[in-house]
Structure formats: C-alpha cells, structure tokens
C-alpha cells in the first residue's frame, strides 16, 4: 500500500493537492476536516460535538478523531492506499495511527509537508473566506487560533515522522500545477 500523510498548516493547499494525488495514484482520500464538515451538515451527534471545537479553531479531541478515522479506513476494504489529509494533527494521533495501521499489516509510507510561510497563509485564508463559507475562515481571531494550534500541537508531528526518516518537505509556494509536479516527483522517487 501507498499511505501518504499530506501535512501542512491551514491554507497550505492540502485539499487541492489531495485531489491531484488521488487521481494519479488511485488512492482513497481521507480528510478529517471534510468528514467533520459532512457530519455537521448531516446534523449527526459527531457533527454537533465537532462543531463546538471547529468554530473556535480548536482541535476536536483525539479520542473522537482517532475512532472516526479508524472506522473510515476500515470501510475501504479494497483500497490501494490512502492520502491522510489533516490527520494526524497531534503526536497522540500519530502514535495511534501507527499502532492501528500495524494491526492491519500496513504502515505510513511517507509524510509530505507542504511548506508555506505564515504571511502567505494568512493571505490565502483571507481569500478563501470569501468563497468557502466556512465559519472558521470568516473570523481573524479564529484563523490566528488555528495557526497557533498548528504551531503548538501539530508542528511536532513533523519531528515524529522525521525520527522515522519518513518526512519529505515540498515547497508549497507557486502555481497549483507546479506544486503538484513537485509532489509527483517526490512520490515517484520513494
Ligand atoms: P484547515 O487545515 O485548513 O484549517 P481542515 O479542514 O483540515 O482545515 O480542519 C478544520 C478543523 O477541523 C480544524 O481546525 C479542527 O477543528 C478540525 N480537525 C480536522 N482534523 C482534525 C484532527 N486530525 N484532529 C482534531 N481536529 C481536527
């Protein structure tokens, strides 16, 4: 299996690039943010719980997120591999993911980090707010909190995979096509 964690701060372009990667490598895309938003739309119990955290730009608790992710993976019996987008976002999630994947005889192949400077991220999120309709894009305080949460809780996940020699950095600045080409080159060289 080819299991890629696509990593990067809010606004790095993970969602856009995931679409390109699943098309080229025939993988299943699991975006925890998208799954939470679908649950909010469907007014499920999980959605109601997630919304209270997401609207503030905070992380949904690990246990809830991990259990949801596991059940989504298990639904995909014939998958050739996965793009994990927005997960893992804490070291506890990364450890749980390793244990879980080992239990089904697979593992993370690589984490690919889309690297984008903070001022560029702020600009992108401001623009996205005009079209996304996402409550967490609309408020500058919430955007700032998401960036802070990323620095404090999520950035350490990079070290986690670096220690396993699985981290690859990709420059996330440039045209969408250029960035896709960099990602394809990185994956084709694994
Ligand atoms: P972005 O990375 O652009 O902020 P996402 O769609 O990945 O957008 O995430 C939106 C929100 O969903 C996060 O701010 C968080 O509240 C919640 N979320 C997504 N993935 C996770 C996760 N792995 N753990 C906890 N919360 C998450």
TrEMBL record:
GO terms for biological process: AMP salvage. It comes from the Bacteria. Its EC number is 2.7.4.3. ATP binds at residues 11-16, 128, 174. Catalyzes the reversible transfer of the terminal phosphate group between ATP and AMP. Plays an important role in cellular energy homeostasis and in adenine nucleotide metabolism. Belongs to the adenylate kinase family. This is Adenylate kinase.
């Amino acid at each position: 299996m080819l299991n890629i964690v696509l990593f990067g701060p809010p606004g790095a372009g993970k969602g856009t690039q995931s679409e390109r990667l699943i098309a080229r490598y025939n993988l299943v895309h699991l975006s925890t943010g998208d799954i939470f938003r679908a649950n909010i739309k469907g007014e499920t119990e999980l959605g109601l719980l997630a919304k209270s955290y997401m609207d503030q730009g905070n992380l949904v608790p690990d246990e809830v997120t991990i259990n949801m992710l596991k059940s989504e993976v298990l639904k995909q019996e014939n998958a050739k591999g996965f793009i994990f987008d927005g997960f893992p976002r804490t070291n506890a999630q990364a450890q749980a993911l390793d244990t879980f994947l080992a239990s089904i005889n697979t593992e993370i192949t690589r984490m690919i980090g889309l690297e984008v400077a903070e001022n560029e991220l702020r600009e992108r999120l401001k623009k996205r707010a005009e079209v996304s309709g996402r409550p967490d894009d609309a408020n500058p305080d919430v955007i700032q909190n998401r960036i802070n949460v990323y620095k404090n809780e999520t950035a350490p996940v990079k070290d986690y995979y670096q220690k396993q020699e699985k981290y690859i950095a990709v420059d996330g600045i440039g045209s969408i096509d250029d960035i896709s080409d960099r990602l394809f080159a990185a994956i084709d060289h694994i």
